[in-house]
Specification:
79 residues, 2 helices, 95% helix, 0% strand
Length: 79
């Protein structure tokens, strides 16, 4: 998607051939091409952060389950 936007911007610039006119006319397109990768990176970092939290929670549940099993075995031996 980013490559298509960049290519479209290149075509628009080739049509205008003047930086000032190009930026005045297509400033929003230029801003989109610059900001899309930034926000995509932020989105990826958030996803990685969520995955790490899920892994930590999964490890916590496994540890709690093992502890409960050990307690049950100990109680059965005492009876």
């Amino acid at each position: 998607m980013l490559s298509l936007l960049s290519f479209e911007l290149l075509l628009k610039y080739m049509k205008v051939r003047n930086w000032k006119t190009f930026l005045k006319k297509y400033w929003l397109d230029v801003a989109m091409v610059i900001l899309i990768p930034v926000f995509s990176g932020v989105k990826i970092l958030k996803a990685i952060k969520i995955v790490k939290k899920v892994k930590v929670a999964k490890y916590g549940f496994k540890a709690a389950d093992k502890t409960q099993k050990k307690i049950r075995k100990k109680r059965q031996r005492e009876k």
